[in-house]
Amino acid sequence: MKKSFGAKTLIFPTPVWCVGSYDKDGKPNVMTIAWGGICCSSPPCVTISLQKSRYTYDNVMERGAYTLSVPSEQYVREADYFGMASGKHVDKFREAGLTPVKSELVDAPYVKEFPMVLECRVIHHYEIGVHIHFVGEIVDVKADEAVLNDEGKPDVEKVRPIIFSPEVRQYHGVGQGIGTAFSIGKQLNAPLK
């Protein structure tokens, strides 16, 4: 029998992404989120949800752009810090000892030391309860060569992204691969639609 937990933001996993933005004075800022995901394949788009009270919200609204830097496990402390401190009061890049890089494609910075980054241009935003949901068209994905597989694509086991467990507030790493998508299901010998 399953136990009911009621209406909660409890799903596994949620991503740990660091949203890069510039404020009205051009100061780089970064904020960690877990409310986000891929939402469209053509055009390629990703969503993030921010509360209006967050410093990053005004930055993204004003600049119409954001980046998503994907921290690896070795940067869990820095990613956690980016979600606790406010860019209104501190320079989070300086405090964490990390480097902002100005995107050449969108009006937002990304974290140099993190192995992957998505550069996004805001194409929609709308209010859902206490959050504003931003849809960003992915203009480019960049990845360090050290995290690429033999085919030249990002390898999740080399990127070692952090995932978040809501409600219990725990960070986790990603485990080993368990099957090839759009292939392992064929073992059921059931008709495909």
Automatic annotation (TrEMBL):
Cofactor: FMN
SUPFAM superfamilies: FMN-binding split barrel
Any GO molecular function: FMN binding
Keywords, in A-Z order: Flavoprotein
Domain called Flavin reductase like: residue spans: 9-164
This protein's record includes keyword Cell membrane: no
InterPro entries reported in the protein's UniProt record: Flavin_Rdtase-like_dom, Flavoredoxin, Split_barrel_FMN-bd
Membrane-traversing stretches: none
Family membership: Belongs to the flavoredoxin family.
Protein name: Flavoredoxin
